[in-house]
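Hi support team,

I've been running sequence recovery on a batch of backbones for a student project. Most finish fine, but this one hangs at about 90% for roughly twenty minutes before it completes. I'm not sure whether the input is malformed or the queue is just slow. I've pasted the structure tokens below so you can try to reproduce it. Let me know if you need the job ID as well.

Thanks,
M.K.
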């Protein structure tokens, strides 16, 4: 029972961090620097002041055990690795992607994707996975997954820029439909 309770708390802390380090830092009085970083002490104090106490041990546990490595700690600072809807610059250099990357989605999104390609929606970049298994897990969060193959090599040859975040997620501004290969539900 305690293990389940600890797991639930870890998920709750992770979601709280995602919300405030990626999307709504101002809701708890945080100001992220231009790279998305905030002092850990400032984050912990802001969370406590808004009724959500996080211990330093919990924070480090969430960062260390998050399966997607959503957060990074550098010295006394923390940030989300990617997925921001607030304006920040992760400072990631352009990177050469593998020939193919993958994107997990669900069938209800396919008509729009066929027409418009992959767009960042409320984020700064489209998120792509380095393998089908990861893309399948991403798509499965919203239902029965559909994995799209992205011809990243052709995109790069055509001038599209890619970056790779600290947790291995590939980022690009958009993926036009011509670079996508559709594969049915798994």
């Amino acid at each position: 029972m305690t293990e389940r309770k600890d797991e639930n708390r870890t998920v709750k802390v992770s979601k709280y961090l995602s919300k405030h380090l990626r999307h709504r830092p101002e809701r708890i009085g945080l100001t992220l620097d231009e790279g998305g970083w905030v002092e850990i002490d400032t984050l912990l104090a802001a969370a406590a002041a808004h009724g959500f106490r996080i211990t330093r041990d919990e924070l480090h546990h969430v960062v260390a055990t998050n399966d997607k490595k959503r957060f990074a700690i550098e010295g006394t600072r923390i940030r989300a690795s990617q997925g921001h809807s607030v304006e920040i610059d992760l400072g990631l250099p352009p990177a050469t992607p593998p020939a193919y990357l993958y994107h997990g989605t669900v069938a209800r999104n396919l008509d729009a994707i066929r027409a418009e390609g992959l767009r960042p929606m409320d984020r700064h970049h489209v998120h792509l996975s380095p393998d089908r298994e990861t893309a399948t897990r991403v798509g499965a969060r919203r239902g029965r997954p559909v994995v799209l193959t992205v011809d990243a090599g052709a995109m790069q040859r055509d001038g599209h820029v890619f970056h790779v975040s600290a947790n291995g997620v590939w980022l690009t501004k958009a993926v036009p439909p011509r670079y996508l290969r559709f594969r049915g539900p798994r």
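--
Follow-up from support: It reproduced on our side and the slowdown came from queue contention, not your input. Helices lie at 2-23, 40-49, 56-65, 110-116, 132-140, 152-157. No action needed from you.
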